[in-house]
Amino acid sequence: MSSSENHRLPHVQKEGHGTPGSVARAWLSLEGLSLGDSFGECFFSPLVYASIDTRQLPEKPWFYTDDTMMAWSIVEELAAHGKIDQDSLAKLFAAKFRLQPNRGYGAAAVQLLDRIALGYEWRAAAAKLFNGEGSMGNGAAMRAAPIGAYFADALDRVVHEARASAVITHAHPEGQAGAIAIAVGAAVAWQNRDQSNVGEQLLEQAHTLTPDGATRAGIAKAIQIDPSTSVLDAAYGLGSGQKLLSRDTVPFALWCAARFANDYEEALWNTALGLGDVDTTCAMVGGIVSLVVGQDGLPKEWLLRREPLEE
Prior knowledge:
Elements: H1 20-41, H2 48-53, H3 66-81, H4 86-99, H5 107-117, H6 122-128, H7 139-142, H8 145-150, H9 155-167, H10 173-191, H11 198-209, H12 214-223, H13 231-238, H14 250-259, H15 264-273, H16 278-293, H17 300-305
Helix pairs in contact: 1-3, 1-16, 3-4, 4-5, 9-10, 10-11, 10-16, 11-12, 11-14, 12-14, 13-14, 14-15, 14-16, 15-16
């Protein structure tokens, strides 16, 4: 991260796992995530195919969504405590929601965060969603990349903290699996950022460390996709978030991040080509690929078009 960005880093607690370097990585991932989120959010329109095919940048400003808001809470939580304190993070999620409720939160998230803000206990509230099954959606995964960035030197810790962050809103194991997969992908992207096989490594490790279930099966399918396969065919085969579930969003996002790991613009344009829940897939990919390309690899023209991240 460039020195010009350092003033925007939250305060780092000296105790525990956190270091200035780990917070800087988490912030870099948040920058990439937010840029992808705001970029993808521009493409919910009938003219989407034409603008993607011609690589015509959307008009500014680009507004980020709940994906960024919740990931931002995670970075603040890690900076303050060096870990995921679930009660603290639940309050942060609810507070940011109450401040800016029109950021595109889903209906279930609105219901849950409203209850937390009113003082309901988050464990009980999250468990009641979806007829008591809990959410298996992609919302925990969309915000998880900064966790992998922060704990990039300890994959077991990545898994633990990603699950802890997910449970607050996603009581279903599949929702938690998506967060683990994306966080692991981000950590491995950082670990192997100078390696030619970074994409292969992040897919393999994400598959290895994601709990058994439909999301993990989708990642296994992504690993088997032939390198000559088009993005559209990959999106068709894996799903690109049309169902807003972890299992039909995370495998495609990891596949895109792996295939285009060394070029942020290519990664995001191709992720957008898959359509679906395009702001969320782009947020996931952006949060991972930024850890490979670094701050200088984030396109400056894009950053100027996105509304600023301000403390």
